[in-house]
Specification:
It is a single chain. This protein is α+β, with helices and mostly antiparallel strands. Helices cover 43% and strands 17% of the residues. The chain has 18 helices and 17 strands. The N and C termini lie far apart (50 Å).
Length: 431
């Protein structure tokens, strides 16, 4: 049972790995639509799709006899509240492997969706549906979240039902390495939002945002970019942060109990009578950590969560960009961002969803900083010098971002341009 802060600190310490054992984990979400009526698929259609994917060697994950996901060789496919689907990839060695994994998954997904009359949308926000049009599913925790989440953020349900993101999980070699990486990933959030913006169309109209998804997350319960993340952070301070953070829900056997009115410290002190004052175990801690929806967060690894979902042209670019910085060139990048003022970072973070590259940070626009960081990332990937079968290193995955910067045009800009010509919904679907 977890009853002390020291146990939580040790939990984070258990994630420490030697540099040679660093891994990469990618998670990416997709929207799914019926091609006959342009409506989001419901749970019955999701089940059809899951059952069809079993033919590719996936195994079902059940909750009360309902299929709620699939797993295969270290990978999981799960459903989000509005039947978005998410691939949580295996722990892999480099971007070549991670990109190949995504390619294999998307090949299988396309085979199944084509057969079932389903269209895929790779965007950060649902470009078509109104919130009340989106069907839910029987996954128990989502029922409770749908009830409680709006109490702390006015766009929380939009987050749950109408957003999709790409996440990157990275390792740390020590507490000091964690602190350095966490400072970097939080400092560059505005640049990440601008560079990977891909959610401009909302309810079939130009929202006048480049990343409407990021605006939603800024107005979501339990989200944001806390100022404490820019302090001299260590495992103890992060433990203090999560101990005093409200609980979203508690899994008590086969039922989910609202954590409303309680913080995790109450759980540790046995003060929650709804669950007969039981104490949390490591699984309870893991659930708590995964229900803190900040832009970045710590588990036994660091989760980067600020990228809009995008199509194949940039799916591997985001992980490559960040791996080049965090695994290949961390000292030079830290030297740069450690001089930035936290209030100016947070202000840029709030402005970036709408202004994109035109957002100002430390006297320069985000296009300047994106270009600077891209060069530093490329340098880092070159130093890693990990080659594929064609003897090319991981820098090849940065080509898309170089085009974005050279043309000053993001995926969001392309979406606005394509769709605005004739407002053809087919322009929103993956080709």
């Amino acid at each position: 049972m977890i009853t002390s802060k020291e146990q939580i600190i040790n939990y984070f310490k258990s994630g420490i790995k030697s540099t040679k054992n660093f891994k990469i984990g990618i998670e990416h979400e997709k929207f799914l639509f019926n091609n006959k009526d342009n409506k989001r698929i419901d749970y019955s259609k999701t089940k059809e799709m899951f059952n069809a994917l079993l033919e590719f060697g996936w195994n079902p994950i059940l909750e009360e006899r309902n299929i709620i996901g699939l797993n295969k060789k270290g990978k999981n496919i799960t459903i989000e509240p509005g039947n978005q689907i998410e691939l949580s990839g295996d722990k892999l060695n480099n971007i070549h492997e991670a990109c190949a994994e995504s390619q294999d998954y998307l090949f299988e997904l396309r085979q199944v969706t084509k057969k079932l009359g389903i269209n895929i949308v790779s965007a950060g926000f649902d470009p078509i549906s109104k919130l009340n049009e989106i069907p839910n599913n029987p996954k128990q925790r989502y029922k409770l979240m749908t009830k409680d989440m709006p109490l702390g953020g006015k766009l929380s349900l939009d987050m749950m039902y109408r957003t999709c993101g790409t996440q990157l999980n990275i390792d740390y070699s020590s507490e000091k390495d964690f602190a350095k990486k966490f400072r970097i990933v939080n400092s560059i959030v505005p640049i990440i939002i601008a560079l990977f913006a891909n959610s401009s169309i909302v309810e079939k109209k130009n929202s006048n945002y480049l990343s409407y998804r990021s605006k939603v997350w800024q107005n979501t319960s339990r989200g944001g970019l806390p100022k404490v993340f820019f302090e001299e952070l260590n495992f103890e301070k992060y433990a203090d942060f999560i101990i005093n953070f409200p609980i979203l829900f508690i899994q008590d056997g086969n039922r989910y109990v609202s954590g409303k009115k309680y913080i995790f410290k109450d759980f540790m002190n046995g003060k929650i009578d709804k669950i007969k004052n039981k104490l949390p175990n490591e699984n309870d801690l893991s659930i708590h950590l995964s229900t803190i929806f900040t832009e970045n967060r710590l588990k036994k690894y660091i989760e980067m969560r600020s990228m809009d979902t995008c199509g194949w042209d940039c799916l591997c670019a985001g992980p490559a960009f960040n791996v080049g910085i965090l695994y290949g060139n961390i000292d030079e990048v830290f030297e740069l961002v450690s001089k930035w003022d936290k209030n100016k970072i947070i202000n840029a973070y709030l402005e970036a969803p709408k202004k994109g590259f035109n957002t100002q940070l430390m006297g320069k626009d985000l296009l300047f900083w994106a270009s600077t960081l891209l060069n530093l990332s490329r340098k880092g990937l070159e130093s890693r010098d990990i080659l594929n079968k064609s003897k090319k290193n991981e820098t090849l995955f940065l080509n898309h971002l170089q085009k974005v910067i050279d043309n000053k045009t993001t995926n969001a800009d392309h979406m606005i341009s394509r769709f605005s010509k004739n407002e053809d919904l087919n322009e929103l679907y993956d080709k």
